[in-house]
Amino acid sequence: MPSQPATAALSRTDLPRLFDALTRRGYQIIGPTVRESAIVYDRLSSVDELPIGWTEEQEAGTYRLKRRHDQAVFGFVVGPQSWKKFLLPPVHRLWSAVSEPDGFRVIPEPPEAPRQALLGVRACEIAAIAVQDRVFLQGPAVDPVYAARREQLFIIAVNCTQAGGTCFCVSMKTGPKATTGFDLALTEILTTDQHYFVLEVGSPRGEELVRELALPAASAEDLAQAQRGSEQAAKQMGRQMDTTGMKELFYKNYEHPRWDDVASRCLACANCTMVCPTCFCTTVEDVSDLSGKQAERVRKWDSCFTADFSYLHGGSVRSSIRSRYRQWLTHKLATWIDQFGTSGCVGCGRCITWCPVGIDLTEEVKALRANSQEDTGHAGTTA
């Protein structure tokens, strides 16, 4: 049998065949769909549920869906949700316990491992999954819930051919084209007389699936079209951020007056951390029934913007919004590098779009850089 080409051409009309092949392999297909005036990620049963002909306008504190003038399948960027909810569930029971005559019996909660195929994963989001892999899989303690779900994952990337108003993946070197971390990658080509996808194989599992579909090899012109699309998106970035000496910039400006300025605008609503594809803060709650005979421990998403998150006996370590915003941005762009060897930001722009007051982290970095000063405090300051 001839070897499957590393790239192939998938016609728009053959997209349902890709769905069928994934379904036969037992995968739940998770992808973008329109719901409640936004493009969200949810389980899909057919191609018709994709946001065909939709795009969005994004700016600081602004998100609006609008119709395109064509029938592009992936003619949008990213919405309010990230893929982390399918790897790190927002609510997860860790264990339960029941009262028995000789004491409590603890019942472990086995981690679920659904076979999930994520369709439409952008390059910045693949970078975000790689960041969370370092957090949950490559440290001294592996998270069993994340590990079980990650092992079963099949990733179908979609390369961006347009950028959003708050995107800055080029600055973070995470896009707009996915280069690794996927099983298959699609680049949508849509002209007046053609609509198809250039498909790139990224893993043996992806190669096996494409071989079953018996797709033709992509031509040199197909590859050139896909490349032009990625280059076009790279030139359309809505934001830019200079990352030169980023870690040192934050470390020497821990007491910069800009933190007071941003604190006067920040609502501490936690929107930025909820939509961020890399934030991973959680809390644990123990609850019992009224009889006291049953109890369970539940892990839930949390945010460093809540006062309770840093609560120790006697009060919150970070009682002011100033200290909480500084903690978030400094961790995201500086101390994360010390912990995990990479920035915690992938340039997706969600935190800018979904901030209700339009705080823009790229502008905050510019302000620190423009008036940089030597730190007069130290990392233990909490005010």
Throw out a few tags for this protein:
383 residues, alpha+beta, seven-stranded mixed beta sheet, four-stranded antiparallel beta sheet
Quick structural overview:
Helices cover 30% and strands 24% of the residues. It has helices spanning 15-24, 123-137, 144-151, 169-172, 204-213, 220-234, 246-251, 258-263, 271-275, 321-340, 350-353, 361-370, and strands at residues 7-11, 28-35, 38-44, 54-59, 62-67, 91-100, 103-108, 116-121, 154-158, 184-190, 195-201, 282-288, 294-301, 311-312, 315-316.
Please explain how this structure is put together.
With 383 residues, the chain is α+β, with helices and mostly antiparallel strands. 30% of the residues lie in helices and 24% in strands. A seven-stranded mixed beta sheet has the order 1-11-10-9-8-2-3, with helices on both faces.
Tally of helical segments: 12
Form type:
globular
Cα-to-Cα separation, first versus last residue: 68 Å
Task: Tally the beta strands.
Answer: 15
Q: What gyration radius follows from the Cα positions, in whole Å?
A: 23 Å
Strand content: 15-25%
Which ranges are low-confidence, i.e. pLDDT below 50, for 5 or more consecutive residues? 375-383
Helix content: 25-40%
Order of helices and strands: EHEEEEEEEHHEHEEHHHHHEEEEHHH
Strand order of the largest sheet: 1-11-10-9-8-2-3
- Please describe the biggest sheet, giving its number of strands, its sense, and whether it closes into a barrel: 7 strands, mixed
Average residue pLDDT: 93
